[in-house]
Amino acid sequence: MKRLIGVAGFGMFNLQAIIPKRRIYLQQFFVAGFRHYKGMELLEFMHPNDLLELKREPENEFDKNAVALYWQQEKIGFVPAEMNELLARLIDAKALPLLGMITHLNNHVKPWENVAVAIYFVQDDSFDIPQHAQYLERIEQPEYTSSVKKEDLFKEVFDEYNGIVDIGNIEIPDIKKYFEKHYSDKKYEVIYNHKSYANITTNDIYTYMYNVKPIKSVLSDKGGKYVLFEFVA
Fold it and tell me: 15-146: which CATH architecture?
């Protein structure tokens, strides 16, 4: 695939204007929902330092603060829900010309950790950065928690969607409301260690609930096999 020179939609900024500037990194994270858009088929063409476009989705029915990420004008996922409120406000107010950049690519982990991203703005070098704030100029090494070597443990998540999660521990109101609406019915109830969990029977656990991770394979009190997810604050 022929790589494009630029990414559309960055307003008055162009690459020549960015190059001599200092980058101030506001947030760094893994792309949420990566496997549900064009990300997986485009991964082999991506490179570190590729630019990403941020697009607000204020009408998103699952998250009013949703910020989508685009590579070469193709949607690859979202800013994680637990990190998007401030970015959404900055974009809505047109307060800063925010940019996204791929910082790390890793094919040896699960899809939710394939692509690490930094969100930044550019600042004139004449401004002094206080010593305590110099971390804002650094790209951090991602902390990976998944590995393809654990494929046997979590294969059923992708094949059968038998993940379970405690809806009561979801801290993001819009996402909690979605799961309560669709998965609070008794037919989705799984009892594990005498506690009730919701069985997420579709890939919704990845599509909308960005800040969860699979932690272990468990047997329900009735002997059914599930993958237990935990909420990551």
Answer: 2-Layer Sandwich (3.30)
